[in-house]
Amino acid sequence: MFRVLIADDEHLIRSSLASKIEQFSEETVVSGLAANGVKALEWLEEHYADICVTDVKMPLMGGLDLIAKVNERYPWMISVVVSSYDEFEFAKTSMQLGAIDYIIKPVDQEQLNGALARAIGEVATQRRAEAAMLFMRSIPHHQDMLQRWVLHIQTVQLETLPLLVVDTLDMLESLAGDRFYLLNPLSMAWLEMIVEELKKEKVKIELQEGKDLGLWEKTILQDKVRSYFRLCAVRRLEEGAQRIFAVTQAVKDQPSRRAIEEVKAFINDHYADKLNLQEIADQVAISRNHFAHLFKQETGTTVWNYLIQIRMGKARELLLGTDKRIYEIAHDVGYDNSVHFSQVFKEQFGLTPAEFKKRMER
């Protein structure tokens, strides 16, 4: 997800730009609107953004001064200029300051789309390069963690995957420091290293970076940035691990695999319901006992453990991404008893919900 701050002194233009930007992609959202450079900087003191789209001439502080300040204080951000002034000096200065594009008003949707695509591409490229440098310098010191992952995959230890992911996240955060936005590319670099290691066993896996839709609100307060990127990294590590597990199992019985995938989809959609084994087996017209055996054989875990993993994953997202109380989260993921929910959560993550939230936000 890429968050955009718009600075323009015309209310109608700010609104129009916001609408056009959010039409570009479901992964691009407008997080903040400001009437001038001063207001934009005040907003950035309390909120997070990846991209700044700014006018040139505004009261109190213009766009070029704003870009200079953004470069100094928020070096991870990329800027795009929109202006009514078709003057070479403005465009030249914008480019010298590192702006990715200089667009003349009225803003054309196609031209804006191109600028946003380049801005997002530049953000991603810079972060991958920065993460790669950290990764290559530090990874020789983390061979024990690499071997833990390989052992988990080889022995299909799905039940302890959440604990392994949290430990891996702590390791990656030790590399990123306060550059929390690097947790995503670091997570992908880690998964790609696991894939390279498995090539020694003739296992070929293609990974795709997941999306962060639904993990947070459009606006992220500065004191929540760490929690947000940790949550994004956890999702990447878990989705990547699940993909690696699925491929390395090398399932040969395709009909059985399709049945299991149907059941997984059913559980993912109904995890908050009061499910029983017969109801789940009925989704693929297989007897209850045979289905239970087949599910364990194909996935390395039981149906109930899989349901718990899904519920706990959703609970974790609600715990870190919302202000809901623990009993509300318990109800949302299918538990009437919050004490029992907390016990299951601790079995899954090694910490109670309150302890887990404190650890993730410390």
Notable traits:
362 residues, alpha/beta, Rossmann fold, Arc Repressor Mutant, subunit A, 5-stranded parallel β-sheet, 16 helices, 5 strands
Structure description:
It is a single chain. The protein has helices at residues 11-24, 37-46, 63-73, 88-96, 109-138, 143-154, 161-176, 183-198, 225-248, 254-270, 277-282, 288-299, 303-321, 326-332, 338-349, 353-361; strands at 2-7, 28-34, 51-54, 78-83, 102-104. The protein has 362 residues and is of the alpha/beta class. It folds into three domains: 2-107, Rossmann fold, CATH 3.40.50.2300; 127-250, no CATH class; 252-362, Orthogonal Bundle (Arc Repressor Mutant, subunit A), CATH 1.10.10. A five-stranded parallel beta sheet has the order 2-1-3-4-5, with helices on both faces. Helix 7 packs across helix 9 and helix 14 packs across helix 15. The longest helix is centred in the middle third of the chain and has 30 residues, at 109-138. It is elongated. The model has no long low-confidence stretch (mean pLDDT 87).
Topology readout:
Layout: E1 2-7, H1 11-24, E2 28-34, H2 37-46, E3 51-54, H3 63-73, E4 78-83, H4 88-96, E5 102-104, H5 109-138, H6 143-154, H7 161-176, H8 183-198, H9 225-248, H10 254-270, H11 277-282, H12 288-299, H13 303-321, H14 326-332, H15 338-349, H16 353-361
Parallel strand pairs: 1-2, 1-3, 3-4, 4-5
Number of helices: 16
**Order of helices and strands, N to C?**
EHEHEHEHEHHHHHHHHHHHH
| Termini gap | 23 Å
Q: For this entry, what is the oligomeric state of its chains? A: single chain
Number of domains: 3
Task: Indicate the radius of gyration in whole angstroms.
Answer: 24 Å
Share of helical residues = 55-70%
Instruction: Calculate the mean pLDDT score and round it.
Output: 87
Which regions have little confidence, pLDDT < 50, spanning 5+ residues? Answer: none
**Major β-sheet, in short?**
5 strands, parallel
Q: Which structural class should the secondary elements be placed in? A: alpha/beta
Estimated share of beta-strand residues = 5-15%
